[in-house]
Amino acid sequence: MPATSGWWPSQATSTLFRQIFAAAWEGRRAVSVYPPRTSAHARGGSGDPPRSSCVSAAGRVVLAVLLASVLAGCASSPDEDLLPPERGRWRREGAVTRYTARNLYDYIDGSAPFVVSFGFQSLRTADYRRAAEPVTTVDLYDMGSADNAFALFRNKANLEAEPVEVGTEGAGSEARIEFWQGPYYVAVSNPSPDESEHVLALARDVAASLPATQAWPAYLKLLPEAGRVPRSEKYLPDSFLGYAVLKRAVSARYTCGDGEVTLFVCRYDTPQAAAQALAAFKAQLEKKAPTKPLTCGDGGFVAEEFILGPLALFRRTHHLGGLIGYAKGAANPLLADVDRCLDECQRRTGVGDDSGDAKCLFMQARWARGRSTAERRSAAAKLAQMREGEPWAMLILLDEGILGDPPPPAAAPAIAEPFLRFRRAVTAAVLESLPVSASDAMLVAVTTNLAEDGFGSYATRDGQELGSAITEPIRDLARQALERATGLDLGYDQEAWVRAILSRKQGEDSR
Questions:
Q1: If you ran DSSP here, which 8-state letter would residue 228 be given?
Q2: Poorest-confidence range of 162-166, 201-205, 402-406, 427-431?
Q3: pTM (global) more than 0.85
Q4: Integer distance in angstroms from the first to the last C-alpha of the chain?
Q5: Pick from 379, 388, 305: which is nearest to 75 by CA?
Q6: Which residue would you say has higher pLDDT here, 480 or 364?
Q7: Strand ranges inside 11-89, DSSP E
Q8: What does the pLDDT read at residue 355?
């Protein structure tokens, strides 16, 4: 998961982007986005398009998608909503300080590269004081997605401390509370042990202002659940076990006999890349000691002299599955369980990876065949929370007609309406999960759903009972998403919303 530091355009560039969007909205040539006109155009002949249709609805979609990745760097990040001047009896001292990947080392020094490797987007930090008590510091890490926030928490938090009921998952000691929720990893710290209860209360207040976590990381499904040691799951984007060839690794400890072993899975873009990594790692180990062949998956090896204990590693399509602490016989069932999980992942996704990659999630939400609407909604929700998923989420919001299965023929209206409800259920998942830091481009895309008064419906399974669920009307979900992101309430007036979004000043975009 590569980190993206983002960039901020100059005032002139930002103004140009806004003019382009404004021109698209008004249907004028305030900014020319077309090639020079031909002689027929110049003469006002048939080649001259009507001025009112210079930028059509389809043109607005294209413009929005083309500029999404650019404007994502200008995403609104409302510090006053996330770290407001007052929180109950707490008062913020001074302004919120913001760090990006470029200057994070000024705040956390040597650990900055490690944090950035998890997909770090930005850090907002502020000091709060309760009466005359010592200052409590709140550090709010925007990691771009819930997957990244979980990964950083599990690698940075003190997991030996007692679990704390805050956020999606928390841990704490007398001086420090850490948790993750949605795309955020949060640390709340105070040097006074007497303030521990109050610090926890402040942490819970911060969690209440953050977007909810829609789902735990999908990559955890790559490992078997039976025998897993609670809270032992971790994810590293690169250099697992200190080897550069072992990338995107999810691991966990498991009980095995009287002891514990570690299972892990590394994920690659193609089967060829996975095979090359397996061969390269084997070659490195064989410089110190020979290996033995392993019959599992698509083939592998056992390194009995590995420094951390006997290691078994095999390949299954895009993945490498491994076990540290290998002992023939007792560990074989665990390896077989990992192989089964990887095989199920391959059959379930059809693309060999259930990692939460933006393109993969988009395919699962709108393109992959044979997936339930509940599964599509889960993928869409995760997509909406990922910074790198914004352009794909915008496609879902802007134009359903170009995506996924074609609608039933007009001659079958009895089928068409239920079909559209399933589609709306996916759109609803994006709107429900949209973070408050969504970019202006995304918010413009949201406004296109203010006129849709239909609702989404989908099947759910409660135990063995199959039931159904219904979303709020799409227009209500769109309005709520806009209100969360802007703090405004402009009803269902699409034009008013677009004008408000486009007229926001640069300083407001970067709060």
A1: B
A2: 402-406
A3: no
A4: 26
A5: 388
A6: 480
A7: 86-87
A8: 46
Q: Which of 391, 492, 477 lies closest to 431, judged by CA? A: 477
Write 53-56 long-range contacts (CB < 8 A, 24+): 53/27, 54/27, 54/28, 54/29, 55/23, 55/24, 55/27, 55/28, 56/27
Burial 119-154 (b: 16+ CB within 10 A, else e): bbbbbbbbbbebeeeebbbbbbbbbbbbbbbbbbbb
Which distant-in-sequence residues (6+ apart) come within 8 Å of 230 by Cβ? none
Please, are residues 456 and 428 in contact by the beta-carbon 8 Å criterion? Answer: yes
pLDDT tier at 417, thresholds 50, 70, 90:
low
* Residue 7 pLDDT greater than 50, yes or no: no
Taking Cα atoms as reference points, which of 182, 178, 169 lies closest to residue 212?
A: 182
pLDDT category of residue 370 using cuts at 50, 70 and 90: low
DSSP 473: P
Average pLDDT over residues 447-467: 76
Measure the CA–CA gap between 118 and 101, rounded to whole angstroms. 11
Residue 424: exposed, middle, or buried by beta-carbon count in 10 A (0-12, 13-18, 19+)?
A: buried
User: pLDDT-based confidence at 78, cuts 50/70/90?
Assistant: low
> Can you give the three-state secondary structure of 104-115, one letter per residue?
CHHHHHHHHHHH
What mean pLDDT is predicted for residues 357-368?
Answer: 75
Q: Evaluate whether 141 touches 151 at the Cβ level (below 8 Å).
A: no
Map residue 192 onto helix, strand or coil: coil
What token pair was written down for 458?
Answer: 């989908």
Other CB atoms within 10 A of residue 60 CB: 20
Written as six digits, the tokens of 234 are 């971790």
Higher-pLDDT residue of 411, 498: 498
Tokens describing residue 180: 């993750």
Between CA 385 and CA 389 the distance in angstroms is 7
**Which backbone phi and psi does 350 adopt, to 5 degrees?**
75, 0
∠411-412-417 over CA atoms, to 5°? 130
